[in-house]
TrEMBL record:
The keyword Phosphoprotein does not apply. It is found in: Membrane. Residues 1-23 form the signal peptide. One of its GO terms (cellular component) is membrane. Residues 131-208 form the TonB C-terminal domain. The keyword Transmembrane applies. Gene3D superfamilies: 3.30.1150.10, Carboxypeptidase-like, regulatory domain (2.60.40.1120). Its main location: membrane. It comes from the Bacteria. It is a single-pass membrane protein. This is TonB C-terminal domain-containing protein. One of its GO terms (biological process) is transmembrane transport. InterPro entries: TonB/TolA_C, TonB_C.
Length: 217
């Protein structure tokens, strides 16, 4: 009897889900960028609106499948752990389409520590400034705030893929904070005289009577 060639894992997943093309589906595998090992338990989510999310966790083989409500442009957020968040490139999904993709995530070997776990927490370097007040928000007399989370690495630089918004009042403020955070420079956190990665949670307030705050010295 002739042998039937094994299906690639993603095609096998589609074969096990008959009728999956009756809706918009994103199927993929999350792997570690250096070793190509599958990453299990990764929280994969697509934010459809401010309070609407489709999410699932990857299995032991790093595979996930998300059923999305309609055709359109999407981005996925991959949360490997508290200090490792990766946002995918935008992709277009047609009606009744199935998109298959492999997602590479570089996972730092050193886990980021919270402020209470370090002896010397991160401190902003002299000259560090806060985000610019968005002109449209200022012209409309709109105030707001953003609570951001990011990791400062051992060189004192925020890791771009770690930036995450925990709370916000307006998306224009979010953009201003993201742009500013990536330009900030810090004195790295230390434990036992050794520089370590630290997870920072920082509020930024936009007030018409004062400049937005920067990370406390």
């Amino acid at each position: 009897m002739p042998r039937i060639p094994a299906l690639p894992p993603l095609l096998l997943l589609a074969a096990l889900c008959p009728g999956v093309a009756a809706a918009q589906v994103v199927m993929g595998r999350v792997v570690e960028a250096r070793t190509r090992a599958p990453l299990a338990g990764v929280d994969v989510r697509a934010e459809l609106a401010r309070d609407s999310v489709v999410a699932m966790k990857t299995g032991a083989d790093g595979v996930f499948s998300l059923l999305l409500p309609g055709a359109g442009r999407y981005q996925l957020t991959l949360r490997v752990r508290e200090d490792v968040h990766v946002v995918s490139d935008s992709f277009d999904l047609a009606m009744d389409a199935v998109l298959q993709r492999e997602f590479l995530v570089e996972v730092p070997q050193q886990r980021a520590l919270f402020e209470f776990q370090v002896e010397k927490p991160v401190r902003p370097l002299r000259g560090t400034v806060g985000p610019q007040y968005p002109p449209t928000m200022r012209a409309s007399n709109i105030e707001g705030e953003v609570l951001a989370q990011f990791v400062v690495d051992t060189t004192g630089r925020p890791e771009p893929t770690s930036f995450r918004v925990l709370r916000y009042t307006n998306l224009e403020f979010v953009g201003a904070v993201r742009d500013a955070v990536l330009l900030m420079r810090f004195q790295p956190a230390e434990v036992g005289g050794r520089k370590v990665r630290q997870l920072v949670q920082q509020p930024f307030e936009f007030r018409l009577t004062a400049a937005p705050v920067v990370p406390r010295p």
